[in-house]
């Protein structure tokens, strides 16, 4: 029979898996409590970092319908549950791991798809959602400006062409 505290931990983590965009599994052996607190602060509101037992985390993930990351739950494991922008959370973990080599990104899951450690690092190399949206908006604005200038140029070109034809016709009419 399962102990109530373990059942509660599984239920809590299952809900975190269900309510998050993704989760990143890390190894944290060798990090101090102060470093773990610093990591939690660096992730901000986009992610919650939780140290948990592998067996309980695997059960919670499976109950949440995520069974593609079972092999990541070996050794010391902690999970960063991503609720905000996954790029920002991946950047936070990558940057912290650069300064603290004891933090190792094992892999994770994003919107139900398993990600390797390399894929999470590639995700961290992307620009944030806000930057990408502003670039897209800028591209749309530039295209609209180009279209507007083309549409403004058409009437003026037409007027110049008609004037040139009129002048040529006047020359031909005056020469006869």
UniProtKB/TrEMBL annotation:
<dbReference type="InterPro" id="IPR043141">
    <property type="entry name" value="Ribosomal_uL10-like_sf"/>
</dbReference>
<keyword id="KW-0687">Ribonucleoprotein</keyword>
<keyword id="KW-0689">Ribosomal protein</keyword>
<comment type="subunit">
    <text>Part of the ribosomal stalk of the 50S ribosomal subunit. The N-terminus interacts with L11 and the large rRNA to form the base of the stalk. The C-terminus forms an elongated spine to which L12 dimers bind in a sequential fashion forming a multimeric L10(L12)X complex.</text>
</comment>
<dbReference type="Pfam" id="PF00466">
    <property type="entry name" value="Ribosomal_L10"/>
</dbReference>
<dbReference type="GO" id="GO:0006412">
    <property type="term" value="P:translation"/>
</dbReference>
<dbReference type="GO" id="GO:1990904">
    <property type="term" value="C:ribonucleoprotein complex"/>
</dbReference>
<comment type="function">
    <text>Forms part of the ribosomal stalk, playing a central role in the interaction of the ribosome with GTP-bound translation factors.</text>
</comment>
<comment type="similarity">
    <text>Belongs to the universal ribosomal protein uL10 family.</text>
</comment>
<dbReference type="GO" id="GO:0070180">
    <property type="term" value="F:large ribosomal subunit rRNA binding"/>
</dbReference>
<dbReference type="InterPro" id="IPR022973">
    <property type="entry name" value="Ribosomal_uL10_bac"/>
</dbReference>
<protein>
    <recommendedName>
        <fullName>Large ribosomal subunit protein uL10</fullName>
    </recommendedName>
</protein>
<keyword id="KW-0699">rRNA-binding</keyword>
<keyword id="KW-0694">RNA-binding</keyword>
<dbReference type="InterPro" id="IPR001790">
    <property type="entry name" value="Ribosomal_uL10"/>
</dbReference>
<dbReference type="InterPro" id="IPR047865">
    <property type="entry name" value="Ribosomal_uL10_bac_type"/>
</dbReference>
<dbReference type="GO" id="GO:0005840">
    <property type="term" value="C:ribosome"/>
</dbReference>
């Amino acid at each position: 029979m399962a102990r109530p505290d373990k059942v509660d931990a599984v239920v809590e983590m299952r809900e975190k898996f269900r309510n998050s965009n993704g989760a990143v599994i890390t190894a944290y052996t060798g990090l101090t409590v102060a470093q773990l607190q610093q990591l939690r602060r660096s992730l901000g509101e986009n992610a919650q970092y939780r140290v948990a037992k592998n067996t309980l985390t695997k059960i919670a993930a499976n109950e949440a319908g995520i069974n593609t990351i079972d092999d990541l739950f070996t050794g010391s494991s902690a999970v960063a549950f991503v609720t905000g922008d996954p790029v920002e959370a991946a950047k936070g973990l990558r940057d912290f791991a650069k300064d603290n080599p004891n933090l190792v990104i094992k892999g994770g899951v994003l919107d139900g798809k398993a990600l390797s450690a390399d894929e999470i690092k590639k995700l961290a190399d992307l620009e944030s959602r806000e930057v990408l949206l502003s670039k897209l908006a800028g591209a749309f604005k530039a295209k609209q400006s180009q279209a507007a200038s083309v549409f403004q140029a058409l009437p003026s070109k037409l007027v110049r062409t008609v004037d040139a034809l009129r002048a040529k016709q006047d020359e031909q009419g005056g020469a006869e």
